[in-house]
Amino acid sequence: MTWPVRLPPGIGEEIGRLSPGTRRAVHDLLRRLAADPRDIGTAEPVKGAELRRALTAPSADTGERVTILYRIHPGDAGDVYDTPDTGPYVEIIFLVWGP
């Protein structure tokens, strides 16, 4: 199953400011999240919310790494943010990079 990955508004502009190698590292991590978001990131203390954090591989050009905080929406009826027609998805909350 491929999980849809939802990005917050305006994140494309932020990603556009990254170096090409760092953008590629973010792209690769987002592809891995779409394949299986539970297999990658480390769970954060708020387990009921399914918050997780993942770190990209170092970029090829600058060596920079990006941290992505995301939430897994399993599509269960108990998830108040899901509606019956949404199904499971991954919500990117924010990206952090830089010195």
Could you name the key traits of this structure?
2 helices; 99 residues; alpha+beta; five-stranded mixed β-sheet
Describe the structure.
The chain is built from two helices and five strands, in the order βααββββ. The protein has helices spanning 11-16, 20-35; strands spanning 5-6, 42-43, 51-55, 67-73, 89-96. Strand 2 (42-43) and strand 3 form a beta hairpin. The radius of gyration is 14 Å and the shape is globular.
Count of beta strands: 5
**How is the largest sheet built, in terms of strand order?**
1-5-4-3-2
How many whole angstroms does the radius of gyration measure?
A: 14 Å
Q: Helical residue percent?
A: 10-25%
For the biggest sheet, the summary is: 5 strands, mixed
Question: Which of globular, elongated, flat, extended, rod-shaped describes the shape?
Answer: globular
Question: What structural category arises from helix and sheet content?
Answer: alpha+beta
Continuous helix count: 2
Terminal residue distance: 36 Å
Ranges where pLDDT stays below 50 over 5 or more residues in a row are none
Order of helices and strands: EHHEEEE
Give the overall average pLDDT.
84
Strand content is 15-25%
Provide a concise account of the structure shown.
By secondary structure, the chain is an alpha+beta fold.
SSE topology sketch:
Blueprint: E1 5-6, H1 11-16, H2 20-35, E2 42-43, E3 51-55, E4 67-73, E5 89-96
Parallel strand pairs: 1-5
Antiparallel strand pairs: 2-3, 3-4, 4-5
